[in-house]
Amino acid sequence: MTTDNIRKNFPLLQQMDTIYLDNAATAQRPSCVLVAVQEFYEQKNANPLRGFYPLSLEATESYQEARKTVQEFIHAEEPEEIIFTRNTTESLNLVAYSYGLNFLKEGDEIAVTIMEHHSNLLPWQMVSRMTGAKLHYLECTSEGELTDEELQKGINERTRLVAVTQVSNVLGCVNPIQKITEMAHRVGAVVVVDGAQSVPHMPVDVQALDADFLAFSGHKLMGPMGIGCLYGKRELLEKMPPFLTGGEMIDSVYRDGAVFAPQKFEAGTVNAAGAVGLAAAIRYLQEKGFDYIQKKELELTQRAMEGLGALPYVHILGSKDPANHTGIVSFTIDGVHPHDVSEILSSDGIDVRAGHHCAQPLLEYLGVRSSTRASMMFYNTPEEIDALIESVSTIRRRMGYGE
Ligand code: PLP
Fold first, then answer.
1. What pLDDT band is residue 51 in, cutting at 50, 70 and 90?
2. Quick one: CA torsion of 39, 42, 44, 47, rounded to 10 degrees?
3. Burial class (CB in 10 A: 0-12, 13-18, 19+), 290
4. How remote is the CA of residue 389 from the centroid of ligand 1, in Å?
5. Helices 31-43 and 272-288: angle between axes, nearest 10 degrees
C-alpha cells in the first residue's frame, strides 16, 4: 500500500496545495466517510428511534449498527455501553455532570494529570467547586512520564475519581492507563480516560484497560464533526442520572415525573448520519490496520524529530523517544514566538498549530507559554516532513537572527 494510493482516498488532500500537519486538531476524511453520510441522507433519512414505518426503522438500524461498530472497535462488552455524543468534550461533561455531581462529595479527591486538555480538566474543576471534592494534580516529568511515586502519592484512599488522558495532545506521550486503573480500583475510585488522541492511532481495548469511562471524538479519527462517543461500564451508567432530558430518552412521562429508558443519555434527535460516518471511518482504519498506521506514523515522527532535533535552537517537548509521541511533535524555537513560527510555516504552505493547545496548566508547568505543534497521520509523507524541517531551518534567519 503506497501513501499515494492512500492519499487518493482523501478528496481534500488531493485538492489542497498546503501540507496538512494539524491532524491532532482534526483529521482529514476519506471519501468512504463522505459517501456514507451522503447515502444516509439520500436513502435512509427519517428520524431514527421514533417511527414504526420502514424508513425510520432503517435509519434506526443504521444508527444501532454504528454503535455496534464502535463497541467492537474499542472492545466494549455490550453496545449499550456506547453513548453517542457530539465530541470528547461533551462525553467528559456528561460524566462530570451525571457521575461527578452525584457521587462525589466534600472530603473526596479528584486526581487529574497536569497534562489534561482543558476538556478533561474544566469539568472536574466544576465538580470540585460544586461538591467540595478536592482537585489533586498528578504531575509528570519533563518527558511526560507519570512516575509510580507520583501516582502512589496522588491516588489514595480519599480519591474517588481519576481523570487521565491516554495520549497527551501536546507531548504525544502514552500514559499507563492499565496501571492507573489498577491503582484507582484498589482504593475504590473510577477512572475517566480521555481517548481523543489515542483511539485514532492505536488499538484501544476498554476491557483490557479496565477503564470505567472513555471519551473520544469522531472528527479526530477521520469521521464527521459533531459525533463523539462515551464508553461507560454498564453498572456505572445504570446508576447515573441523565445529563440532558427531553425526547427519546424516556419510557414514560407523567405530569409529575418520568421513567427513563435505558438509552437515557441520548436526549433529542440523534446524529445518526454522523454515527454512520464514524462507523465508516472506523472500518477504513481497520482496513488499513493499526500495524500499518503505527509503523507509518512512527517513521514520520522519527524523521521529524531527527530533522528538527538537529537544529540547535529548536527544542522538542516531551520524550526523546519518537515511539512515545504518537505522531505529535511540539517544539519551541529560541527567540521566535510560536505564532510567528506558524505564520512563517503557513507562508511556506505548511499547516501547523501554535499556542497553548488547550493545555495551559501543562505548558505553564513545563515553563513555556506556548509551542508550535506538528501532528501527523499515516497519510502524510516523508517529503512533507522534509519540507517542514527545511522551512523551520530558515525561520530564525527570516526573523533577523544570523542563522
Ligand atoms: N482531549 C484531547 C486530548 C484533545 O486533544 C482534544 C482536542 O483537541 C479534546 C479532548 C477535545 O476534543 P473535542 O474538541 O473534539 O471535544
1. confident
2. 120
3. middle
4. 26
5. 150
**Which amino acid appears at position 334 of this protein?**
D
Q: Distance between CA atoms of 402 and 383, rounded to whole angstroms?
A: 27
Residue 153 makes CB contacts below 8 A (sequence gap 6+) with: none
CA of 358 to the centre of ligand 1 (A): 8
CA 101 to the chain's CA centroid: 23
Helices 382-398 and 338-347, packing angle to 10 deg: 120
Of 283, 379, 323, 373, nearest to 70 by C-alpha is: 283
Mutate to test the pocket of ligand 1, among 23, 84, 88 (most ligand atoms within 8 A of CB): 88
- pTM of the prediction? 0.97
Three cell numbers at 200?
A: 485514532
pLDDT tens-place string over residues 54-96: 999 999 999 999 999 999 999 999 999 999 999 999 999 999 9
**Neighbour tally for 99: CB within 10 Å:** 24
Is 173 an annotated catalytic residue?
Answer: no
| Ligand 1 atom with minimal separation from the 357 CA | 8
User: Quick check: helix, strand or coil at residue 277?
Assistant: helix
**Residue closest to 85 by CA, chosen among 280, 216, 208:** 216
Closest CA to 162 of 141, 136, 144: 136
Output the CA torsion sign for 315, 316, 318, 322: negative
Of the candidates 168, 214, 176, the one whose C-alpha atom is nearest the C-alpha of residue 193 is 214
Cα 70-219-64 angle, rounded to 5 deg: 30
Give residue-wise pLDDT tens across range 113-166: 999 999 999 999 999 999 999 999 999 999 999 999 999 999 999 999 999 999
SS (H, E, C) 355-382: ECCCCHHHHHHHCCCCEEEEECCCCCCH
DSSP letter at 22 equals: B
CB atoms within 10 A of CB 344: 19
